[in-house]
Amino acid sequence: MQYQAELIIPILGIISGMVVPIAVFLWLYHDSKNKRATIIEISKNLDDKSKLDELLKIFDERKKEPIDYRRNGIITLFTGVGLFLFGVFFLGNIMQAVGALVSLVGLGTMIAGYLYPNTSQELTNAVEEFEKK
Question: How far is CA 108 from CA 35, 98, 111, in A?
Answer without folding.
Answer: 38, 15, 5
